[in-house]
Structure formats: C-alpha cells, structure tokens
Amino acid sequence: MTSTDPISLVRTFGLAALVLGSAATQCSAQSKPFRPPAVPLITFDPYFSIWSEADHLTDDVTRHWTHQPQPLTSLIRIDGTAYRLMGTTPKDVPAMPQTGLRVTPSQSIYEFKDGKVHVTLSFMAPALPDDLNAITRPVNYIEWKVRSTDGQKHVVEVFDGTSSALTVNTQSQKVTWSRETMGPLTALRAGTEDQPVLQLAGDDTRIDWGYAYVAAQTKLVSTAIGSEEALTSAWVATGKLSAADDKRMPRAVSDDQPTLGFSFDLGNVGAVPVARHVLMAYDEVYAIKYFGQKLRPYWRRNGATPASMLQEAEQKFDYEADQCNIFDKLLDDDLVATGGPKYAQIAALAYRQCLAATGIAADANKQPLMFTKENTSNGDIATVDVIFPMSPMWILFNPALAKASIVPILSYAASDHWKFPNAPHDLGTYPIAKGTDDGGEGMPVEESGNMLIMCDAIAQSEGNAKFLTPWWPQLTQWAQYLEKYGLDPEDQLCTDDFMGHLAHNANLSVKAILGLAAYGDLCRIRGDAQTFLKYQKLAKDDGAHWMKVADAGGHSLLAFDKPNSWSQKYNLVWDRILNLGVFPSSVARQEIDYYKSVLQPYGVPLDSRTHLTKTDWSIWSATMATDLDTFETLVSPIYDYLNTTSARQPLVDSYVTDNIKSDGMHARSVVGGIFIKMLADHAVWQKWIGFDDKEHPGPWAPLPVMPKLTEVVPTSRSASVSWKYSIDKPADGWIKPDFDDASWKEAVGPFGTAGTPGIAPKTVWSTDDIWLRRIFTVPSLKGDAQLLVYHDEDVEVYFNGVLAGKAPGYGTSYEPIDITPEAKALLKSGAKIVMAVHCHQTTGGQGVDVGLAVEVKG
Questions:
Q1: Contact 167, 249 (CB under 8 A)
Q2: How far apart are CA 122 and CA 140, in angstroms?
Q3: Which candidate, 779, 842, 837, 833, places its Cα nearest to that of 810?
Q4: 221, 445, 578, 801: which sits with the fewest CB atoms below 10 Å from its CB?
Q5: Using CA atoms, how far apart are residues 411 and 592, in angstroms rounded to an integer?
Q6: Is the Cβ–Cβ distance between 514 and 453 less than 8 Å?
C-alpha cells in the first residue's frame, strides 16, 4: 500500500482525506429517500438481530428477524412533554415526527423534529472489516443527539427501555434480572431462569440462554428494572425512574413484561448538540456446539468477561464511531462508482445483515470459526451453498473470515465422518454442528464447485495457497469428482433446491467447469505447472463443449435436454473475477442481452419455469455486464421492489418479479454476494484487500473428536420400553415417586405421529400434551451421565420429583441434555428412579422419547 492509498490517507488525516482518496465524490442519496422494507437496528448474529419493519420507528414494535416482538422503547421529554421516538407504547404518548432515515453499512440513522428540538437517533454496529475484535464483540450502540431549533433552550430527558423478550424463545419462559457496576458503567442484565445452553436448534427460534446487557455511564444515567408499563408511565409523568428494582422474579416475559430501563437528563439543551448513548450487548456464554465441544464466542477466547468487554466497548465508542463514519463514506463512494447509487443503497442494507446471519466462535486454538445459519429455510449450520453466495463480501473485506467460514467444512470433509467423494452440504442445524454423516441434503456437483471456486478466490486475495495445504487431498478429490460428473450433471439438486431436482442443468455445469479451472489455478499458485495446464485445458475443452450443447440461439438453455428454455447463468461471473479465461466474453454478453428481454417489473426471473428470482444471483448475473448502464438496468428493478414492497422484512434474497406483495427468504447471509460487483473491478478488490484484518488467524485446531454416547437406561428406539402415560392433565404431584398412576394407560414408546422426522413412533400421540412415567434402576455409571431425548416440542424431565432437564422447541434427532446438579445427585448405583416426562406440542409433527446415556470422550 502506498502513502496515497485512500485507506492510508483516512487513517493518517481523518475524514477530511476522503476527498483525496475516495473512488468517487458522488453521493448515493436518491432524489427520493430509500425506504428499506426493514431497518437493521441491533445486528450481531442470528440471535441478537433486531429490526424495525415499518416506515416510522414508532409505527410498530421492534422485532427479531423472525418477526417476533423484541421491544426496544425510546421516549423523550421536552420541557415536560413526552413523545415516542421508538416503539408503540405508551399508546397515549404521541410520536415525535420522524423527518428522515439513512441506512449505511454500519449505521441506521433516524431524524426527528418538532417545533423545539431536532433529535438524531442512531444505531451503530462497529463491524469494521479491518478489526476482527470489533466485528466479533457482541455490542451495538444506540445514541441520541439533541439540539434546539428555535433559538431557545429546552429541558430534555431521554428514556431507553429494553424488553427481556430478547432472552427467550417464547414469551412464556421465565426470566430473572440483576444489575452490576462495571468500572464507570452501570449494567442491567436479563436472562432465562433455566439457561438451556445450546439445547434449542432450528430455524424459527430465538436464543433462550445467556444474558442481555444494557449499560451506560453511571454518572450520566439513572436506571431501574421493572414492568414496561410501570417504567414508562412513571417516566412520562415525572421524568424519573423508580428508586428500586422490581423483585417479582422469576416470571414470564408475558407477565407484565420485565424491562431494563435507563433515563438520561440532558439538562438545558441549546443549539449545541447534547449526546448520550447506551451499549447493548449479548453474552451467549457458549456460541456453537461443534462436534460435541461447546465453543466460546470468539470475543471470550482469551478469558474476557461481560464486564471487561463492555468497558472496552465504552472506551472505544468515540474511536469506533469515527471509524464507522470513515468506512461508510469510503465504501459508499466505491459502491456508487462501481455500480451506481441504487446498487450502493442495496449493498449498504446487506452489509450488517450478512454478518448478523452468522455466528463466530473460537476453536481450541483460539482461532475464529464462522458459522452461517440458513435463516427462513431450515436452520442448517455451515451450509456450503449459503457460504458460497455470502463469500464475496468476506473475500473483499476480510479473507480471514472467508477462511473461517470454510474451515469447518474442510476439516469435516477430511475426517473419518465423511465417506463421500464430493464436498458436504452442511454440518447440521444451527447452533449444533455435528456433521451429516449420511450425506444429508446432497448437492454433490454444486458444493464441490462452490468450495473450489471459493478456495481459489481466497488464494488470489492472499497471493498464495498455503492456507489450503492441510486439506489439499480433499480439493483434489473434489476436482476429480467434477471431472467425472460435472460436465453433464445427473439428476440432482443445485443451490436453487426450491425448484427441485434437475438433470443436465446448464448453469450447474458452468459451476463444475469453473470449479475445475479454479482447481487448476490453485495448482498454478502452488507452483504445479503441469497440473495447472492439465486442468486449464480440461476446463476450456469442457467450456467449448458446453457452448455447443447449451446453445439455444441467442441465449443458453436451462438444461441441455430442454428446448425453449433459459436460466440465469450467474455462475459465469467467476470466470471474469478469477481471470480463468474459460469462456469467451461473447457468452456473457449474449446472456446479458437476453436477460434484458425477459426483465419483469422487479427483476430478472431465475429461469423460464418461474417468475421467482434470487436477489444475490441476479446481481451476480448483472455483474457479467461490462458497462455500468446495463448493470444499473438490471439492478434498478431490485431496488424498486425493496423500496415499495408491502412485505416488511429484512432484505430478501427471493421474491416474485411481478408481484410487489411477494415475500421470501430473508435475513440471510447470502446477501453478502451483493458485493460481487466490487470483486469484478480488480482495482477496487486490490484496494480493499489492504483494509483486511491484520491478525491473519491460523493455524486452526483439528476437528474435535465427537464424544460417544452409550445408552445405559435405554430409549424406546433401542429397546422395548413400556411407559405409563396420560393425555389428560394429571393431578398435582404426578412427578413424585409415590403418585398413584394406576389409572394411566400403558404402552411401548416412542410416542408421536407417523412421518415426524427422526423418530419412529410405536404408540400414537396426537393431542397437545402427554405425560409419561417409568421406573429405572440406576446402573453403575462410568462417564458423564446425560439425558438422551427426542422432543417435538417442549419437554420437561423429572427424577423422583426433581427437575432433571428441559428443552424448548423441537429437534429432529435424539440429542443429549445436561442433567441438573440436583437430579444428578440422585443417580447413585442401584437407586430406584421414577422418571416423569411432560411434552407439549403446538403444530406439525410430534414425538417424544427419553433415556439416559453416558458420554465417553476420546
């Protein structure tokens, strides 16, 4: 990097240097402001992700990306008169007029104004690409800036409330709360009473373990914990909070909603802005269960605590706010210059969302592992065809995180778990990565091509392929698989699996051909000229064959055997980005010309079978255009959809191109693929590589050895186990050993309905609830005893009347659950235990079964 590089300039001289170093001085603002379908407020990972799904911040409660309410409240008093800034309560308090909204890569900034004051309410995630510590610190900032607009001074107070709903999956779960002094900060904390760490896996889920924190400088704030209604009504009337915290706990969130309250007295505010801020944080304690090993969040890798983490965040607030402003401006300029102002706004909306759909944990070597969650799909963890569309953002901004996202896949593929010649599809269901040893949702050509292309892009970013050395046999094996099966793929799924199986898929064939070329390029980077030439020739020969069999006269076919068909060939874009030289430029030009002819009001459909499109793939296809006007022609309809759709949700990556009301998959990391346009400009790519994190993580730890579970009190899947059961609510005391269950029915488990994934019921249970009892004798236990449970949905297990464990939601397999210390103390060899189980079901399939297993590590 030279001293005239724009990044060096802004670091040396500050914001004023932007006019010297930015790629463009053009502003991305539109003549009419962009109206996001949902605005990112608090973004960190799939659990700590809060959005406003309304035009105004006061039109609706704030919501988790799953649409469930997670209320954040902000009120302001001006000379004793209260107004709402955020949220819908109190209902009788008027909303202050919202006059503006701007979404940048790292910030969402609301403007409010009445006849007396102007308020700027900002939400900032310090997701700075050159600072891995900032990206992985689970803190967002909310800041209020208030100034007088009428020439007079006004007495101003601000209220901030955070619901304990942030800490539960369902609002019936009970929470507790506390407060703590952390150096100069006062922090309020809330979390569930039960703390079922890493037990809940699935898609439409929210975290129910760990603790939400809100903190502010003690000298500037007063605080209280209580019901949302009590806190706000008292504050609206007096500007004061209760002197004592609510002590009625634990209680359900739905029971008078426990809320963490903060009040700031800004004093007499004049024309000079007065600012206050809070820190919002979430301590997951453990982030991912990785092949039986509970991984700490990356920020905890060196022993950091919530207190040390929050104090560090407070110390860095001013610095990180400046750095976010620099980053936002610099990135906006490059986005506008590269793809136009509408593209810049879409990308700004995508940046925080991409990060918020992933979790970053530390492995045994304290190295980062990034895990995607397949939101609004099936909740898969580390899905390769989700990592692949996400990858342009991290290849551009931080290749260390691009590597961290594929290391779990590489390590798993190299282990004894994986028996197939192709790349895996995923590693399980978030947040539990345990592998899919049976092959799972197979996409053999898709995932093998994806992995090879990503590996080559990372190597090109770094100028070497040393990172891949431990897994080179796997890459070679995948290239050999594509050599055999990729040119004319058999009937199998591709990443667009919602369209079903498709044989002879022309776009999938492109991916395979470019995957072979990418492997050859990796050989070149490693200095293996002979193998490079072999795969370069193979890819070019396959490409020439493809152009013949896919030719439909003016465009290419959807599948080689489907005349009068077409599809987006978004995979072609990597030929240009990686300089592979497989296809002549005329192929991309022909495709682009055809896409313009089938353009719908809100974008190019995915293929001739549907009007559905994918936002990420459409921008990949548009990136094949070599002129900005054509790129903007294809991207502008996507902007128009986002700007006007009635489907209020985080940035979608699927919708119907002629239906402004359509919704689809949203809040997903795949939108990181929107940044691919910047990779296609090699000068821009090279510039941002210099902004990469300087820690250069590695080496990564080996894949953990999965603990072996041996059933010592059998489940009904491994033995014929008879249970007493009732589908009518029993009398109190049903969990006790001396309860009279003579009137209960008796049957062999498991219990449930046919077709429920992961269980084979022998006794039908189709009501909302079932109560079960059985007696077992405790065997000699050699190892760590755990419950082994299948539950769909909420389950509670008791030993002799003592709670042994519980888990909300549902799973699709038998999973271990930690036994409470009180119940574990009862497990003495030879003791008689009455195991009592309650399972509650709400919708869909259902099933329950429980046993006891011993975990043996090694």
A1: no
A2: 10
A3: 842
A4: 801
A5: 38
A6: yes
What is the per-residue DSSP string for 774-814? EEEE-----SEEEEEEEEESEEEEEETTEEEEEE-SB-SS-
In this structure, are residues 326 and 10 in contact, taking their beta carbons and an 8 Å threshold? Answer: yes
Q: How many CB atoms lie within 10 A of CB 755?
A: 10
Say if residues 124 and 107 touch (Cβ distance below 8 Å). Answer: yes
For residue 424, which phi and psi values (nearest 5 degrees)?
-65, 165
Q: Is 849 helix (H, G, I), strand (E, B) or coil?
A: strand
DSSP string for residues in 661-678 = T---SBS-GGGGGGGHHH
Q: Taking 70 as the threshold, does the pLDDT of residue 544 lie above it? A: yes
Query: For the chain, what is the mean pLDDT?
Result: 94
Task: List, as one string, the DSSP characters of 30-55.
Answer: -SS----SSEEEEESSSSSEEEE-SS
pLDDT score of 311: 98
Three-state SS for 581-599 is CCCCHHHHHHHHHHHHHCC
What DSSP line would sit under 546-579, residue for residue?
HHHHTB-SSSB-SBTT-TT--B--GGGHHHHHTT
Q: Of 578, 583, 587, give the one whose Cα is nearest residue 551.
A: 587
Contacts with 308 (C-beta within 8 Å, 6 or more apart), sequence order: none
Q: How far is CA 215 from the centre of its chain?
A: 24
Is the bond preceding 368 in cis, omega lying within 30 degrees of 0?
A: no
pTM: 0.93
* Best CA proximity match to 675, nearest among 228, 332, 358, 208: 332
**Tokens representing 770?**
């079932």
In angstroms, rounded to a whole number, what is the distance separating the alpha carbons of residues 140 and 178?
A: 20
Closest CA to 630 of 333, 339, 346, 350: 339
* Mean pLDDT of the region 279-293: 97
SS3 455: helix
Nearest Cα to Cα of residue 752 among 768, 765, 762, 771? 765
Nearest-angstrom CA–CA distance, 172 and 823: 24
Question: For 8-26, what is the mean pLDDT?
Answer: 39
Element (H, E) at 132: helix 132-136
For residues 110 and 784, give the distance between their C-alpha atoms in angstroms, rounded to a whole number. 52
Read off the amino acid at residue 440. G
Task: Name the DSSP class of 6.
Answer: H
Say what the pLDDT of residue 858 is.
Answer: 55
Give the Cα separation of 818 and 194 in Å (integer): 12
CB 310 within 8 A of CB 279: yes
Q: What is the pLDDT of residues 188-199, one digit of tens each?
A: 999 999 898 998
